[in-house]
Amino acid sequence: MSTIDAWVVPIAKQAMVRQQVDLGPLGAEEVEVQVENCGLCHSDLSMLNNEWGGARYPAILGHEAIGTVVDVGAAAKGIKVGQRVGIGWTASSCMHCRPCLSGDQHLCARAQPTIVGHRGGFASRVRSHWAWAIPLPEGLPAADAGPLLCGGITVFNPLAMYAKPTYRVGVVGIGGLGHMGVKFAAAYGCEVTAFTSSENKFDEARSFGAHHVVATRDPAGLRKIAGSLDLLITTTNVPLDWNLMIGALAPKGRLHILGAVLEPIPVVAMSLIMQQRTISASPTGSPVAIATMLEFAARHQVAPTTEHYPMSQINEAFERLRAGKARYRIVLDADF
Question: Among 162-171, 219-228, 249-258, whose mean pLDDT is lowest?
């Protein structure tokens, strides 16, 4: 099927309208997925508003799509019609550059984002390269799995790369990203400290698995944990007191940045040098990393906390996200 129904952003900052869109012929290495539901990520809102530049309109957003494979290209491998899969931030990569051949396909310079110059998951169907259609493991509730494909892998990757079960891990920001970070870190076996500016989230943060909760607006509280964290993951997109954040790190501790902070981050070199601390960052993850994360989530029953809307109420759902009222991820259920 080349003609689909989709919710289209005509131009930046405008409400989405339902339209029919012709996808053209299916590529030889592509798969086509009947969308069942799709998570609404803050990155979708950023792209709708063109906050980062580079957005292309008209746009079909949505990059946390769950659905059933309905067609496969002649050269597609390992994916079958009828299989339930997920498609996240990346829809394809070149598969022949050094990062791709090294297993870091998400770092490919020619990686194709699902919602930039490509039709995303707020539609009846969505396509991707076969390698980026990730099969869902048994035991993972499909209706709530969408946010794992972007937010989930984003917070899981630094844990997989840098954490040990014996680590003391901090997560800054208990929102769409951070609440999953707390859940994954707790399931990983770490001692978890949640940082939030909202005191009404203290109890929820503990329910997600946090052993300790610290108010980010309380410098005295931050100073009490100075030098204690092996890994501190920041998920917010607002400036922080970076000196206090770095000061919370233990010797050889790591500050890992996930939130898309647009302002420069000031760093005092000696605060890193004398304690051999590190600052790093990462985007999402490779297909194997995403599959590994989904398997971990199924094994440990880690799932995002979600609110569901019918996709026909997509503009209302975006307004709820824009107002900061989502608790904690919104999922849109296809109702075409």
Answer: 219-228
In the 3-class helix/strand/coil scheme, how is the chain assigned residue by residue?
Answer: CCEEEEEEECCCCCCCEEEEEECCCCCCCEEEEEEEEEEECHHHHHHHCCCCCCCCCCECCCCCEEEEEEEECCCCCCCCCCCEEEECCEEECCCCCHHHHCCCHHHCCCCEECCCCCCCCCECEEEEEHHHCEECCCCCCHHHCHHHHCHHHHHHHHHHHHCCCCCEEEEECCCCCHHHHHHHHHHHCCEEEEEECCHHHHHHHHHCCCCEEEECCCHHHHHHCCCCEEEEEECCCCCCCHHHHHHCEEEEEEEEECCCCCCCCCCCHHHHHCCCCEEEECCCCCHHHHHHHHHHHHHHCCCCCEEEEEHHHHHHHHHHHHCCCCCCEEEEECCC
pLDDT at 310 over 90: yes
Whether residues 139 and 9 share a domain: the answer is yes
Structural domain boundaries enclosing 99: 3-150+285-333
Identify the CATH number of the domain in which residue 320 sits.
3.90.180.10
What pLDDT is attached to residue 110? Answer: 98
Q: What is the pLDDT of residue 217?
A: 86
* 23 and 145 together in one domain: yes
Using a cut of 0.85, tell me whether the model's pTM lies above it.
yes
**Looking at the structure, do residues 33 and 143 belong to the same domain, yes or no?**
yes
Q: Give tens-digit pLDDT for 28-66.
A: 999 999 999 999 999 999 999 999 999 999 999 999 999
| Whether residues 187 and 44 fall in one domain | no
Percent pLDDT > 90 in the chain is 94
Same structural domain, 290 and 239: no
**Residue 30 sits in the same domain as residue 111:** yes
Structural domain count, the chain? 2
